[in-house]
Predict the structure.
Amino acid sequence: MLKPDMKVRIGGLELRNPVMAASGTFGSGEEYKDITDLDRIGAIVTKSVTLKPREGNPPPRLVETPSGVLNAIGIQNDGIDAFIKDKLPFLGKIKAAVVVSIAGHSLEDYSTVASRLDREKKVDAIEVNISCPNVKGGMEFSRDPGLASGVTREVKRATRKPVIIKLSPNVGDIASIASAVEESGADAVSLVNTFAGMAVDIESCMPVLGNITGGLSGPAIRPIALRMVWETAKKVRIPVIGMGGIMGPEDALEFMIAGASAVQVGTANFVDPGIAVGIVDGIEKYMRRKKVKRIKEITGCLKI
Amino acid sequence: MQHKKGRIISNKEVKPGYYLMAVHCPSVAKTAKPGQFLTIRCSGSTEPLLRRPFGFHRISALGFEILYEVVGKGTKALSRMKPSDTVDILGPLGNGFSIPAGKRDFVIIAGGIGVAPLTALAEELARDKKKNVSVIIGSRSKRTLLCREHFEGLGLKTMIATDDGSCGKKCFATDVLDEFLAIKRAFAPTLYACGPEPMIRAVGRVAKKRGLKAYASFEENIACGVGACLGCALRTKNGYKLVCKDGPVFDLKEIIC
């Protein structure tokens, strides 16, 4: 059998394979350059960047929970100017596509950052984080279809690059939010961001996290994330990028069979920095075994 | 920084609840410095999920040792591993202890399991015969006192403080430090500390009062270990710093003590 075709299209962006490193878990790629092959991953989604620098939340920011991680980083970043100056040059040297995640407090924040990135050749696409549970107002845009549409339109106006809207699972009907952003011009949706959660220290009777609540990721959320990806993929025509506790190729394939065109790997990078590459290899092996020529054939092949 | 497999040489309980593991892994050992750390994947499953961080306890040409206390699922799983098992290692990580050039006098202050990375430092300092190194170990009791023989074997003056008075003086390690510094006039050693945060902050106050240079190794929950997730933030006078990348060793003048 010929080498399986693993290329996927996300709007106008072509990825060498469907495996992406999720925002917030992979820094800006450079942190991992010695311990994984950045040329073999489909894309890297960088840590969310905002217009102005953000200090982040008070520690403790992170704690392990059963088969999961609860975090409340608070979008610590040095702002868009520093990102372009300090982080982008390295990203131009790798073969993985570069997706820059952006976050903001107002429509204007989002559009200013997007227009700044529109001028940068090294940026292949923009992921719009409207779903961070750990900053004040971070999730509001993804809770309401009207607000989510507003951000999408604003960012689309500010850039010609493909726009991916990252959705929150902390909503009643995630598929309806996806539909709303699709109608407003989103090129793709990625889901899910973390589930709002909490942990308590029973000795001190205090919350474990400095921010009191945090976002839950990891295998603990996988079945719920998978169900949300399935519901969303049924409803929209734009590509759905699935994520939530993917730890290996089998998990990635579950998401793709349920309707995802590509997947993102987040928490698993902490456990095994080489996991994204391992997932690419595992999917290829599966395609050979199942005699699947093109990865597109897997997306949404769920038999019901 | 490397992601490697190491082979366990030995893994023994040295005191109730405390284990010493020796790992064969030349490539990581070759680049490791005292004060740096590594992370180990303690299970092949999702429980526990994250890798666990350990300071290098001893470093040789062929491998390293870690000294750890069994406190949760990760260290429990690690304590069950057997010689010739392989471990998944990411390291060396972080900055390590810096040793100011031209200094002669050093005092190491260890609290509880915080002694673990300080032995590697003591070995490095003791290699230079011109250096005068003293050690203060604080522990709950004689039963949990670690590494005394190790420091004494290096020929270092070793003082003990225990909470219950079962060994050495019944006081805090920092009380012994205060007394020790008061004995000789114009004695201005460089201080190195690792242990519970209240102890580190007390060392910081002593250093400030006497105008001494002091370094301490800090602990936080670590996820990525490489400065990507920003989960291990420590508040410093210059804003948040990352324990995994900017630390784990910080100059105590940077820390609010």
Summary: The radius of gyration of chain A is 18 Å. Chain A has one domain: 8-56+75-195+218-297.
